[in-house]
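Worked Example 4.2. Consider the chain below.
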Amino acid sequence: MGVHVTHGMSSSDSPVYRLDIQARCRKCDGCLRARAAYWRLAAINEMARAQRTWFGTLTLSPDIRFLVLSRARHRLAAQSIDYDTMTEDERFTELVRETNPSITRYLKRVRKESGSQLRYLLVSEAHKDGMPHWHLLVHEVSQSEPVKKRTLQGQWKGGFSQFKLVAQGESRPAFYVAKYLAKEARTRVRASLEYGSPPEALALQA
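Applying the procedure from the previous section yields the following structure tokens:
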């Protein structure tokens, strides 16, 4: 990414300026690899300073999938937008938007039941049918506020959930979660504020 300005003179001796802006397209292989590398490093940083980290997957049950799709169609129809005429990427974006409130409520329930100040990285990926599912890392901030597996799994009301405690010093889950960001441009990321930032940056947020 960068900006380059050149100038010259027109035939009428008036100055002519040309502005070239190089910006990320966010869709090519290079941009996707850069995005994956950024979040992989951020996840490794978070895992290194967390007391414990959980690696999990969340999916939607058939009835919830139907409900999400119906709500997305209804919301778009109210805006005179036909869901069926949208591209796959556009549909996925709308389905993720429709499920975001459920993700927010899930995280709030986990924090409330566990009493833990958790940090997280969540990546939404599309199933073959275009419906989202999620891969996530949940980091425990305090040793005195652990979160239990049954809380992480039990508080997800949307379908199947599975969590595994990451071994101390293990970094493979960070690579696993980040690899989905290099596969498709439509993959979405959601994370805690200042995720992956140095400890001093987080202290300023406190």
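Residues 27-197 form one domain. The first helix runs from residue 29 to 49. Compare this with Example 4.1 before moving on.
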